[in-house]
Specification:
This protein is an alpha/beta fold. Helix content is about 25%, strand content about 15%. The chain has 14 helices and 18 strands. The strands form four sheets. Strands 11-10-9-5-2-1-13-12 form an eight-stranded parallel β-sheet. Strand 7 and strand 8 form a beta hairpin. Helix 11 packs parallel to helix 14. It is globular and about 75 Å long. The two termini are about 30 Å apart.
Length: about 550
């Protein structure tokens, strides 16, 4: 177990860190009310230290009516009572640090909750008021203003405008309970910099920025025209001045940013990672890639190239709180991910998905840069089928009921196979139902089995810390990865000065390249010592 943060590990820890994502509501229930909370997280901190991660990213724990799982923030300076108190958060941050775990919090700058004091004041103040200038209020079109101000489409589907009693409309790129802020207003910028300082003063080491490319809108709010440059609300140039200002705040605390930046243009993506802007951003090209050697190699090469151009480390992630769990996705015929393709009843082969997820774990953790691990991935949890009458995710309702939503990857974790609710909490039924087979994935059951998914992740993270070359010179500009000759369908590369990773995505077993030791396997070799299909190996030269 780690014992505090080493004093020399202060500047570049984030360049090759393994960061564990906690969706607080579903991690561990400390008070038995059916909802995960900060007390539950504190009780499980030793588990995370033993797992071998470097930091914890928390999805929003702030005061919220939970219209969108906490991404509708009513007050950044108050912890939601369902999760605990500000004092609980401060204690959690301190206790994690004592165990060698840094803390990253989530900020949602595009919008606030409709319960936020600013928005309530805007509704009360009426048209033309300074309070409404903090948001995007507009009159409608049509004879009586009954038509929305433009033709944009919500990120969750449907119309992103809601009309209020006085006839004006307000913009919300997500749900009606999440009104978009006007980032052209200086008070909006100042408030968010103050919020950053509030949490950095409490010892957090970094901030994840939700929907980081959506904040700024064309002030004319024009109708959407496909191909128009610049886009009216995505990746606008004004964003970079905002993040330069934020970077100055972060640098004063030696803190880091990670942005949620969904952009297909690699050159535009890299602009957010220039030395005076964000430190890192999520790599969604790798996350959405199918289990296919060709596209994966292209995603890896493109990712490393776009980050090298600005001297930033790459990030690698297989799953998060918005995405179908890896075991299920890789067990389907279509192993890629696309929000638009989600539907009920998609069949999956759990054994195949698990075998591929194990290999993908070794592949992703062997790549140079930082890695993100979503809670429960280390247990090999599949996507859960949530009964329709228990679904809570607004994506489901905004789609007219066709999209199953994201609740299936947010089911409360199984900790103890023989305990009520698989050890998630002691008394009340969890806020989302756990599948009947959930105890089989329990952490206590897997802890005793080195062949389990948990055993694999613990071994991999231990080697990533201790084996020379795994974490050397991350983002330093030197060549960090060399592709090795391999059979079709095989990804084989050597880390500079370090181990070799071989992942066989092909149809036939393959011989391992020359090596002195086998460090770790995602599954057993065949009888002839070859690497089977959907299996990965770490080798020492």
């Amino acid at each position: 177990m780690a014992a505090g943060l080493p004093p020399e590990d202060t500047a570049n820890w984030w360049r090759d860190a393994v960061i564990y994502q906690i969706y607080v509501r579903s991690f561990a229930d400390g008070d038995g009310d059916g909802t995960g909370d900060l007390a539950g997280v504190r009780a499980r901190l030793p588990y995370l230290a033993d797992l071998g991660v470097d930091a914890i990213w928390f999805t929003p724990w702030y005061l919220s009516p939970l219209a969108d799982g906490g991404y509708d923030v009513a007050d950044y300076r108050t912890v939601d009572p369902a999760f605990g108190s500000l004092a609980d958060a401060e204690q959690l941050i301190a206790e994690a640090r004592e165990l060698g775990l840094r803390t990253i919090v989530d900020i949602v700058p595009n919008h606030v909750s409709d319960r936020h004091a600013w928005f309530r004041a805007a509704l009360a103040a009426g048209p033309g008021s300074p309070e409404r200038d903090l948001f995007h209020f507009r009159t409608g079109r049509g004879a009586d203003g009954e038509v929305p101000p433009n033709d944009w489409v919500s990120e969750f589907g449907g119309v992103p405008w809601t009309r209020v009693e006085d006839g004006e409309w307000y913009l919300h790129l997500f749900t009606p309970q999440q009104p978009d802020l006007n980032w052209a207003h200086p008070a909006v910028r100042q408030e968010h910099e103050d919020v950053l300082r509030f949490w950095l003063d409490r010892g957090v080491s970094g901030v994840r920025i939700d929907s980081a490319a959506l904040l700024v809108k064309d002030p004319a709010l024009p109708d959407f025209v496909r191909g128009r440059d610049p886009h009216p609300y995505t990746d606008r140039d004004e964003l970079h001045d905002i993040y330069r200002s934020w970077r100055a705040v972060a640098d004063a605390y030696a803190a880091v940013f990670v942005g949620e930046v969904w952009l297909p243009d690699s050159e535009r993506f890299a602009r957010y990672l220039r030395p005076d802007e964000l430190h890192t951003a999520f790599n969604f090209n790798f996350l959405t890639c199918p289990w296919d050697a060709g596209p994966l190699r292209t995603a890896i090469d493109d990712t490393l190239a776009e980050h090298a151009s600005v001297g930033a480390p790459a990030t690698w992630v297989l799953c998060n709180h918005d995405v179908t769990r890896t075991v299920t996705r890789y067990g389907r015929e279509d192993t890629g991910f696309d929000f638009r393709a989600k539907t009920f009843g998609t069949p999956a082969d759990p054994a195949l998905g698990t075998r591929r997820a194990r290999a993908a774990a070794l592949l992703s953790l062997a790549l140079p840069g930082a890695a993100y691990l979503y809670q429960g991935e280390e247990l090999g949890l599949p996507e859960a089928d949530i009964p329709r009458d228990r679904i809570q995710d607004p994506m489901h309702f905004r789609s007219g009921g066709t999209d199953p939503g994201r609740d299936g990857c947010r089911v409360p974790l199984p900790w103890s196979a023989r305990a009520p609710h698989a050890g998630f909490g002691s008394t009340a039924e969890p806020w989302l139902p756990q599948p009947g087979g959930w105890p089989a994935y329990a952490a206590d059951r897997q802890s005793a089995d080195p062949r389990s998914m948990l055993g694999l992740y613990r071994a991999a993270l231990r080697l990533r810390r201790t084996e020379p070359g795994f974490r050397a010179a991350a983002g330093a500009g030197a060549r960090q990865l060399t592709w090795l000759p391999s059979a079709p369908g095989v990804l084989a590369f050597a880390r500079t000065g370090g181990p070799v990773c071989v992942a066989n995505l092909g149809a036939e077993p393959v011989e391992l390249p020359a090596h002195t030791d086998v460090l770790l396997l995602s599954g057993p070799l065949d009888e002839e010592g070859r690497l089977p299909q959907d299996t990965a190996a770490w080798l020492r030269n």
